[in-house]
Specification:
The complex is a heterotetramer.
Chain B: H1 7-27, H2 31-56, H3 62-92, H4 97-100
Helix pairs in contact in B: 1-2, 2-3
Chain C: H1 2-22, H2 26-46, H3 50-75, H4 87-110, H5 124-132, H6 140-177
Helix pairs in contact in C: 1-2, 2-3
Chain D: H1 8-22, H2 29-58, E1 60-61, E2 64-65, E3 68-76, E4 82-89, H3 91-114, H4 121-140, H5 144-162, H6 169-200, H7 205-209, H8 214-217, E5 223-224, E6 227-228, H9 229-244, H10 253-256, H11 262-271, H12 276-283, H13 285-290, H14 295-317, H15 321-341, H16 351-381, H17 397-411, H18 417-432, H19 434-459, H20 475-490, H21 513-534, H22 540-548, H23 550-556, H24 561-607, H25 615-638
Antiparallel strand pairs in D: 1-2, 3-4, 5-6
Helix pairs in contact in D: 1-2, 1-4, 2-3, 2-4, 3-4, 3-11, 3-16, 3-20, 4-5, 5-6, 6-9, 9-12, 9-14, 11-15, 11-16, 14-15, 14-19, 15-16, 15-18, 15-19, 16-17, 16-18, 16-20, 17-19, 17-20, 18-19, 18-21, 19-21, 22-23
The chains are: A mainly alpha, B mainly alpha, C mainly alpha, D mainly alpha.
Chain lengths: 354, 105, 178, 639
């Protein structure tokens, strides 16, 4: 964590000059956390708006367009409304766990966000096992959902939570294995180095066939892991009310809601980083302007986010058994074969390098 | 190694964790709780492996690998234990130790 | 800095471990255990074994705890409170544990550890090489054994959890055939 | 010659017993019958082969039969005092093999018909096989201890078979009676064995029976109450033999033992088990003869003679045909004992021994035949009593003829088997002791009389009204009758002195015509008297009974021996001795033991909480133990 952002180096020096080393570090950590919280909130709200506009576009209707320019402030207004709402809860709920659950979800999302390289120097935590860390963190998020479902003392919530748990545990395998396939090319788990490798061409190009397969599996599994349609059994409205967060209201509900969108963003960001070169511009056209990396990163990520929204409004929902069948009988074997294929390609040096 | 922290402090913490696990193992009356206590005990010993590896033999990896194996075994053990508990629950609708005692008669 | 973090982590671990073994609510106890495990992962991060920390998080937090939560969800009702042991038993156990702890600590503090100052970072590649090495000191055999064990555990868990149902089903099919 | 294969002879019935016993419920009755017969047939063929090998091929060296021993050490105490398990082959054991095999095989075949439809068919054959095994083991025993083991096994089989109809109270009582009485006698046997072991230092027959051996040469070295210790031992051993062979005063169990199925009576209580006593005395004959100049042997002779006379008198008045036969058996056993008692050792002197064995052989055949015939009759009329029978000769021709042959044989009419053996006995008795000779002759007459009394009673006389018309028994029952009848006819012509003698050397035995004539004459008188009394219906018998009056009543009540025993045991022993001792035992001995037991239970009750079956408790004990041990070690190290 000592490896702070380069852009805050100035701030770091300034802080160090006015207070002791430890205090400066501490203040810096707080500042970074605040920055990420800001990103989190803005991205979340913005994604909600996009979702609604995209949905409206798919369904040939207008969508929110009144509050602010083209409805840009719509979600902000919703957030204010949610903040002012009463926090309800069930009588016999386990209050401690009930209140804890949303933070679980939020914190894991935030932690995942911390390791994502927005650009070369805009990365809070460049850990040497970056991808493994992402996998580990994303597996904890489900605990929040399980807790929320159980402690609500509501059978729909419980069923939703169970479904979500099953789904997340299952699809975690595919996420991990598909990322592992790409690790075979990069030879490192560190996200910055993964991007470094892609200066010779994005991994999806380098790894060609298995990389494309891995990307497709990753997108499917990622969609499932974020509990989004067509894998949204956990909150299937027609069956379970609102699934695991049926009993939540106000800001707590908003946390779940935001976390879901941030998770979607994180999946897209991982896919961008691992498959599409992260902040690297196509063919290195903007190498000279480092800060433009953020633009490229966000552009690629937004495209993938749009892809996931496209899924949502296009495919019908699966049944639970179909969902598990898809994972255990198709994706997992395919993934394992894919790893072998990728290993062969790396071994025989059939990688395409630009 | 952690700057400013001696191996004694870490071993103290792991010992405390270990005995908390033992305490739980003996006093709890529910199979799942007992399983959790066992996990606690296992974890305390895993930290010891890792810490001793890091502090005393930083060039080697035996401690780390051992802890990896312990984690793998713990995962296997938990999966089996949970399946047994669930099966038991189906049969006698309870996971309390006192109800399972009926098997000894 | 690291000292402070370690002390915080140690405090978290011990407090939540105690909470975990004394809580009367099943799922809370599991969550406390999760905190302890996360604290342990934090210790691994602190001593720069990042890979181990990530494994700890993935397997323990993401796997074992989720499994346990699942079993709790299946076998427990929210209003149920755990029975606790008799006070006498608690006290006796506490005394025994404290005595044992005393024995441990005296032994630990009586021993002179030969600490080597070294701040090398262990990379995942090193671990992987060691794990799959078949030279002297390599761990390929235990690695394979563990893989077989995991497979056996997986099959065993499925069979145990499913066994009765299969029987009933075959019973039913026999009945219907009659 | 290696006779180790002999071990198969007892082992085959044992295997059959185990097979039938374990799979009692699984085996169909018909199959179990075949298995039993097949097992016994195997043993029988082996026995005959062995006999052929022994008597005609390998056994005789320079006119003397050798003894072959195959054994393995079972328990070793000292150089000589050890208990072996093995087989001993000498003339009498081979002869006994033949007797046991023949009779047992016939009884097995007979039982297939007789027991048909019985619930415990399989069990019955299992017990029969057990008995056969035990009897083989007894006759092949190499030492006193082995013989004792099989002696008791025979007793157990006898107990099981007498009590075979265990739903009948009388059968149960009879079984208990037989067991207890023989057990009581066997106590003497056991003490005798221990005395022999103590004073001679060995149990081995070979060493004991060696006329030049220490046991016989040094018999006078120890004395006790005016007799040598060995004599006491021999008398006690004879006590055991008397119990098994139903000698006076241990005879009371034999008549009651007739509660068992008739084939059992034929096999155990006529032909084989009851001669075990005779066999035992014969087995130890050199000891009996040489020690104290045959003092113990004299006792054998007098007990035998008295039992013979006593039983013959009682037999005259009994109305239950099986009981008549039982007393007849007792009488004939007494005859054998008597013969042994008057026997010498060498050459012609040993005539009594040879005659006894000869009579044992022939008696086994015709007595088994008599019992089987009686069984056939009982099978037909469903009653044991003479009054329910009469005129059966028309309905059961084969039974009639074979029964007649047997009766003639036992009455000593030439040329049937009994004539020859009985004649030898009388000759031996005449040469040694005139008193015993006269008793023998008188008993011979009585035998003929009571035998023909029941013969006429069953097959002639007035025809009783039968509910169902009696019919001849099936072939499985008549076949053994015919075989045994044949043996009863030709058995007497076997030159027994060529095979079985006291000193194992052969000699020539001739009929002593004057004495034979006397015996036959007495026998014929008995038969004629019986013919007069019972051939046609008349009141002569009743008149005679009235004439004897009180004596008749005593006789028909067996001289009140059962009652005397009951009085002695119940009134005197029980009330004056047993009850106080039992009270003491119950109050103080049992009280102590029970106190210990109760305390143990109480203690275990208190500490059983430790074994709770909860892994947690064990875990706690483990942790606490480790902590304590660690504390101790730390304490030791720091000091």
């Amino acid at each position: 964590m000592t490896k702070a952002l380069s852009i805050t180096k100035g701030i770091h020096d300034w802080l160090s000059s006015i207070m002791s080393e430890n205090a400066a570090n501490f203040v810096e950590m707080v500042l970074i956390a605040l920055v990420y919280l800001g990103i989190f909130a803005i991205a979340g709200l913005f994604l909600v708006l996009i979702e609604r506009r995209v949905a409206a576009w798919f369904q040939l209707r207008v969508g929110p367009n009144r509050v602010g320019f083209q409805g840009l402030l719509q979600t902000m207004a919703d957030a204010l409304k949610l903040l002012s709402k009463e926090l309800t809860g069930t009588e016999k709920a386990d209050k401690f766990l009930y209140n804890l659950a949303p933070y679980f979800v939020i914190v894991t999302s935030l932690m995942a966000l911390a390791v994502i390289p927005f650009t070369q120097e805009f990365q809070a935590f460049d850990i040497n096992i970056g991808i493994l860390f992402l996998i580990a963190i994303s597996s904890i998020g489900v605990i929040g959902i399980l807790l929320g479902g159980w402690s609500s003392n509501n059978k729909f919530a419980l069923i939703g939570a169970m479904r979500s748990g099953v789904q997340t545990i299952s699809y975690e395998l595919s996420v991990g294995l598909s990322l592992l396939t790409m690790i075979l090319i990069t030879g490192t788990l560190q996200l910055s180095e993964i991007i470094e490798v892609q200066k010779n061409g994005w991994l999806i190009v380098q790894g060609h066939i298995p990389a494309i397969i891995a990307f497709m599996i990753f997108m499917i599994a990622g969609t499932a892991e974020t509990n989004r349609a067509p894998f949204d059994m956990a909150e299937a409205e027609s069956e379970l009310g609102a699934g695991f967060h049926t009993e939540y209201s106000g800001m707590k509900f908003a946390y779940f809601f935001l976390a879901e969108f941030i998770n979607m963003f994180i999946i897209a960001a991982i896919a961008t980083t691992v498959f599409f070169g992260g902040w690297l511009s196509p063919f290195g056209i903007t190498e000279s302007i480092p800060l433009l990396g953020v633009f490229w990163f966000l552009a690629k990520t937004m495209f993938l986010v749009f892809l996931m929204m496209w899924f949502r409004w296009t495919f019908p929902r699966l049944r639970v058994d179909q969902l598990l069948t898809l994972e255990w009988k198709y994706l997992l074997p395919l993934n394992l074969m894919n790893i072998v294929l990728m290993a062969l390609i790396v071994w025989l040096n059939l990688i395409i390098k630009l | 190694m952690i700057p400013g922290i001696s191996i004694y402090e870490i071993l103290t913490v792991t010992s405390i964790l270990f005995f908390i696990g033992v305490y739980g193992f003996i006093t709890r009356k529910n199979l799942i709780s007992i399983l959790m206590s066992v996990e606690l005990i296992l974890n305390a010993s895993v930290i010891n492996f890792v810490i001793i590896n890091k502090y005393l033999y930083p060039d080697m990896l035996q401690g780390v690998l051992f802890s990896l194996f312990i984690i793998a075994v713990a995962a296997a053990e938990t999966a089996l234990a949970v399946s047994i508990i669930i099966n038991l629950y189906r049969q006698i609708s309870s996971v309390e130790v006192k109800d399972i005692e009926t098997m000894k008669h | 800095m690291e000292r402070v973090i370690f002390y915080i982590l140690a405090l978290i671990m011990i407090v939540f471990a105690i909470a975990s073994v004394t809580s009367r609510k099943m799922l809370r106890s599991v969550i406390y255990l999760l905190f302890v495990l996360c604290g342990i992962a934090g210790v691994y991060f602190l001593i720069d074994y990042n890979f181990l920390a990530a494994i700890q998080l993935t397997v323990y937090a993401g796997g074992i705890i989720v499994l346990i939560i699942f079993s709790v969800l299946l076998v427990h009702h929210i209003e149920m409170e755990l029975e606790i042991a008799k006070p006498s038993k608690q006290i006796i156990t506490t005394i025994a544990c404290l005595l044992g702890l005393g024995v441990f600590l005296t032994t630990i503090y009586a021993h002179e550890f030969n600490v080597v100052e070294n701040s090398l970072t262990t990379t995942t590649a090193e671990i992987g090489t060691k794990l799959l090495s078949y030279d002297a000191g390599g761990f390929i055999l235990p690695f394979e054994v563990i893989s077989v064990l995991l497979l056996a555990a997986m099959v065993g868990a499925i069979i145990i959890a499913k066994g009765r149902k299969l029987e009933e089903r075959s019973q039913k099919s026999e009945d219907s055939s009659i | 010659m290696n006779f180790s294969n002999i071990i198969l002879i007892p082992l085959v019935p044992l295997a059959v017993f185990l097979l039938l016993g374990i799979f009692n419920q699984k085996i169909k009755p018909a199959v179990s019958g075949y298995i039993g017969v097949a097992g016994l047939l195997t043993s029988t063929l082996f026995s005959f082969y062995t006999a052929y090998q022994y008597f005609f091929v390998h056994g005789k060296i320079n006119g003397v039969y050798q003894t072959f021993v195959e054994k393995t050490v079972w328990m070793n105490f000292t150089e000589t005092l050890r208990i072996d398990m093995g087989v001993l082959i000498d003339p009498i054991s081979v002869m006994m093999l033949i007797v046991v095999s023949t009779v047992s095989l016939m009884v097995h075949i007979y039982s297939r018909g007789y027991m048909k439809g019985d619930d415990g068919y399989t069990k019955f054959f299992a017990f029969l096989s057990l008995f056969s095994f035990s009897m083989y083991g007894l006759v092949l025993a190499t030492n006193l201890f082995q013989i004792y083991i099989f002696w008791e096994l025979v007793g157990v089989s006898s107990y099981l078979l007498i009590g075979y109809y265990y739903t009948k109270p009388s059968a149960v009582a009879a079984a208990k009676k037989a067991f207890i009485v023989t057990r009581f006698a066997d106590l003497g046997f056991l003490i005798g064995i221990l005395i022999m072991g103590y004073y001679t230092g060995t149990y081995d027959f070979e060493i004991l029976n060696n006329p030049e051996g220490d046991a016989i040469l040094n018999w006078a070295s120890t004395s006790f109450m005016g007799l040598s210790a060995l004599t006491w031992g021999l008398i006690l051993i004879f006590l055991g033999g008397a119990g098994k062979s139903a000698m006076f005063p241990f005879h009371i169990w034999l008549p009651d033992a007739m509660e068992g199925p008739t084939p059992v009576s034929a096999l155990i209580h006529a032909a084989t088990m009851v001669v075990a006593g005779v066999f035992l005395v014969a087995r130890l004959f050199p000891l009996y003869y040489f020690v104290e100049n045959g003092f113990a042997l004299n006792i054998v002779a007098y007990v035998g003679a008295f039992s013979s006379l006593f039983a013959a008198i009682i037999a005259i008045t009994q109305t239950d045909i099986k009981r008549v036969l039982a007393f007849s058996t007792m009488s004939q056993l007494g005859y054998m004992m008597l013969a042994l008692g008057v026997s010498g050792y060498d050459d012609h002197e040993g005539l009594g021994y040879m005659a006894s064995m000869f009579h044992l052989f022939t008696h086994a055949m015709f007595k088994a035949l008599l019992f089987l015939g009686a069984g056939s009759v009982i099978h037909a009329v469903h009653s044991n009593y003479l009054k329910d029978m009469g005129g059966l000769r028309k309905y059961m021709p084969i039974t009639h003829i074979t029964f007649l042959i047997a009766a003639l044989a036992i009455a000593g009419v030439p040329p049937f088997a009994g004539f020859f053996s009985k004649d030898e006995i009388l000759v031996a008795a005449f040469e040694h002791n005139k008193l015993i000779y006269f008793i023998g002759v008188f008993v011979a007459g009585l035998t003929a009389f009571y035998m023909f009394r029941i013969y006429f009673g069953i097959f002639w006389g007035k025809e009783t009204k039968y509910e169902r018309k009696p019919h001849e028994s099936p072939i499985s029952m008549t076949f053994p009758l015919m075989v045994l009848a044949l043996l009863s006819i030709v058995g007497g012509f076997i030159p027994f002195s060529e095979f079985v003698t006291a000193d194992k050397a052969t000699f020539e035995a001739h009929l002593n015509y004057p004495l034979a004539a006397v015996a036959v004459g007495v026998g014929l008188i008995g038969i004629i008297l019986a013919w007069i009394f019972y051939k046609k219906e008349n009141d002569l018998a009743d008149k005679l009974a009235n004439f004897f009056g009180l004596f008749y009543k005593w006789t028909s009540d067996k001289f009140y021996f059962d009652e005397i025993y009951l009085f002695v045991t119940k009134k005197i022993l029980f009330n004056l001795v047993s009850a106080p001792i039992a009270k003491f035992d119950k109050k103080y001995v049992d009280g102590t033991m029970e106190g210990i037991g109760n305390k143990t239970v109480w203690t275990s009750d208190k500490i059983k909480g430790l074994q709770s079956g909860k892994v947690q408790d064990y875990g706690f004990a483990f942790i606490a133990g480790v902590v304590i041990i660690a504390l101790v070690f730390i304490y030791l190290w720091t000091n």
